[in-house]
Fold:
Amino acid sequence: MSLAKGGLDVSVQGYGHKLPVLVSKIVEEMHRFGTDSTACSAELFARMQEKSLRNLKNYLFWQPYYHCIVGSLMCLEDGRFTSNEKYAALETATLADFTSFVSSLVKVFRAQVLVHGNITASEAQTLTSLITEKLPFRALPHSQVPARRVAALAPGNSYVYRQHALQTNPQEQNSAVENIYMVGLSDGATGVPPLPTVESTAVVHEATLELLAHMVRILFYFSVRRVIGPLASQLTALFCLTSCLLVDVSLF
Structure:
């Protein structure tokens, strides 16, 4: 279970005949936390709160290239919060706040189930039924359904967002730079992205863009490797993440 854009992502995998048991246990625990106020003790809440706060604080000491990725998402995507904002909110949260939040969460939400592999259609329906039967809920109103939105960069303009480690990690000696080139899917006339088909210009542009990123990444890798040797792999990883983000931005 992990935090995803707009909600929780519960992923299970492994032996197919055991998946229903695992899914059943997960939804039972979620239902218990949402309906039983004593499911989470004060000691458990304090321990988990301290661990989460420590993880948020440790984020400030992560590698600069990762801060580049997160910083660009903070600038472009709507509905994101910084680690400092989440730290401040979690630091003042109480057990009563947590219990109230989980109680509301399990009553109204939007569930999406994706099953793939060698599982049959009937088995997939059984897994879905385990969720809806053991975790009864009302559908989330359409107005509250999370929407993935990205800021539009004006053509011909450039924007710079700088982050300095001096206030959070003064001993950091490395730096990282990320360039993002937004490639829109608009048809140029109506401003509305066309429907994705195999023949559509959007699909051709995306595939060509991915090919370009791959070609530049390979050339960059061998060029840097000849110059600085062992450090090439680290820089290549940074460039790889940057080019992937470039492709991802074009999909919004």
